[in-house]
Amino acid sequence: MEVRKKMDEGQTVDFIAAVIPELNLRLRKSELKGDYKNIIKMISQFAEDVIYAKDWHRFEWIMQVMAYVHDRGTSELQFVINGLLPNTFSRLKKACNTIEWNYLEARLPLSIQRLVLPEDTCDKEKNKHAEYRSYENN
User: Fold this and answer.
1) Which of 7, 16, 74, 130 is the most buried (most CB within 10 A)?
2) What pLDDT score does 10 carry?
3) Other C-beta atoms within 10 Å of 47: how many?
């Protein structure tokens, strides 16, 4: 089994700045060096701005980036993301109507879903997909 190398703080900032160019200048500020909490807050604020702009594809991309960073980041970074994302999502949900939120919720990466959605919601999604599979076999 291949062991993935964890991204350090510098690699994390470089990666985020490369794939979300709108944040490049803000991430390069010296006061953010080693400050995972403010880096994640900055990404969360940008995600909220994207939600208010109704740019769903951009939001999906930001969540893909966040999942990648979470999965490959240090334990400190994972701890910060685990602590901040649920609060961020409660704000994001308020910015959407039910149809929009259901659309976005269904497109979240699995690692993000596990962090921000109630467990019964994730179980319903799994069961829904299992139901579809059972019909395909008939």
Assistant:
1) 16
2) 80
3) 22
